[in-house]
Amino acid sequence: MMNNLRSVDELASEEWFFAKPWLVVGTGQSLENWKPTDEYNIWTINAAIDVTKYADIAALHDPIIYQTPTKFIKSPINARYILTRTCSTPITSNTIFVQFAIDPNKGLPQHNTHNSSGFAFSFLCPRVKTIYTLGIDGGRGTFKGLKESYQHNERAEDFNAHNQAMSNYVKQHGTEIIRL
């Protein structure tokens, strides 16, 4: 067990967490509609942080990202970085860990193993009644404004399958989803 690790669960006990409604920003085609805003808490998924340039929570789940998360964590982009499958990542003041069932045991509260959108909704739905979304589109492919290496890595992904957990949590908790 590692000491001094911050768990994602701690965030939900902080005052800012409930101060604004949540906007979950994914890497889907509708990400082209992004406009900077301060009316939401922003949860970015994977490379969406490259477009938003800010997030209250930046969740790094995909292999192309979590294999080298330090380049994001040490970037000038201001965010709390949620990391999975990254037990060798150095601890910094802006890193927060998620312990999935498949991760090495770090002694943190354990969460069901999910893909990136599934985890966002598994975490938010029990805590908030309305979630706004942008770039959570389903289908295949990503926003063309993302780096080519990320687009190439994600081409074969079926985001309808990725988002199945999202709809399960929405139904279970009665959360309202509003797509921007």
Question: Can you walk me through this structure?
Answer:
- The model has no long low-confidence stretch (mean pLDDT 79).
- The chain is an alpha/beta fold.
- The protein has a 7-stranded parallel β-sheet with strand order 5-4-3-2-1-8-9. A two-stranded parallel sheet has the order 6-7.
- The chain has one domain (8-179).
- The protein contains 8 helices and 9 strands.
- The longest helix is centred in the last third of the chain and has 10 residues, at 164-173.
CA distance, first residue to last residue = 41 Å
Q: Into which percentage range does the β-strand content fall? A: 15-25%
| Shape assignment | globular
Q: How many beta strands in the DSSP annotation?
A: 9
Kindly provide the radius of gyration, computed on alpha-carbon positions and rounded to a whole number of angstroms: 15 Å
Which stretches are poorly predicted, pLDDT < 50 over at least 5 residues?
none
The averaged pLDDT comes out at 79
Percentage of residues assigned to helices? 25-40%
Major sheet: order of its strands?
A: 5-4-3-2-1-8-9
Work out the oligomeric state of the chains in this entry.
single chain
Count of individual domains:
1
So how many helices? 8
Structural class: alpha/beta
Could you spell the SSE succession in H and E letters? HEEHEHHEEEEHEHHHE
Spell out the blueprint of helices and strands.
Elements: H1 8-11, E1 22-25, E2 41-45, H2 48-52, E3 54-60, H3 63-66, H4 70-73, E4 78-83, E5 95-97, E6 99-100, E7 110-111, H5 116-124, E8 130-134, H6 148-154, H7 159-162, H8 164-173, E9 176-179
Parallel strand pairs: 1-2, 1-8, 2-3, 3-4, 4-5, 6-7, 8-9
Helix pairs in contact: 5-8
